[in-house]
Write a structure and sequence with these properties.
Layout (H helix, E strand, L loop, with lengths): L17 H28 L6 H21 L8 H21 L7 H18 L7 H8 L7 H14 L5 H12 L2
Helix pairs in contact: 1-2, 1-3, 4-5, 6-7
Length: 181
């Protein structure tokens, strides 16, 4: 089942700011977890080093950011007391382990988005009336991690070409028209 991903629209703008909000949330969470990594390393040498007030505020900020991050990736199941405990104790390593357990592959959303954009650019170049590159497009699609509506529609229509329900020309025209809606 696909996860529902929230949208973020700024007043007066007609485009979704979700990726920007997610990028800032993820970046802030990871920066705080680097602080946890450093403190864990240094606190192992000196048990009384970390002030209780600093510890409580750092933990509260991480809890809120992890909740926001879970919301913006569209996977609130990832947000649990168990996972929070792992992240607060293990920092960056803990977050990467949890992301892997939830099928996010340890890559950041931002990294995945950048890679996906590169694959999509390559796919767009293959969708021409001059040549049918269906097999190569299938291969490239297998590398895309974030299945946007455009990608889902592309996969569905590509399958229709494979089954003979849509000609290559119809596929190309449909893709070019839908992409600009």
């Amino acid at each position: 089942m696909d996860k529902v991903k929230p949208q973020a629209f700024y007043p007066g703008r007609n485009y979704d700011q979700r990726s920007w909000v997610l990028e800032k949330t993820e970046s802030s969470l990871k920066q705080l977890l680097v602080v946890v990594d450093i403190l864990n390393e240094e606190c192992n040498e000196n048990e009384n080093m970390l002030d209780e007030n600093i510890s409580q505020n750092l933990s509260a900020a991480i809890v809120d950011l992890f909740k926001l991050y879970s919301f913006w990736i569209g996977d609130m199941e990832i947000y649990s007391f168990e996972n929070l405990d792992v992240i607060l104790k293990e920092g960056t390593r803990g977050l990467n382990r949890i992301l892997n357990q939830h099928g996010i592959d340890g890559k950041t959303y931002i990294d995945s988005n950048i890679e996906d954009e590169k694959w999509m650019d390559s796919i767009k170049k293959l969708i021409t009336l001059e040549s049918n590159n269906r097999t190569l497009i299938y291969e490239y699609l297998s590398h895309i991690t974030v299945k946007t509506e455009l990608i889902k529609r592309l996969e569905l229509n590509l399958e229709k070409v494979t089954l003979g329900e849509l000609t290559w020309e119809e596929f190309v025209i449909n893709f070019k028209n839908k992409r600009h809606e």
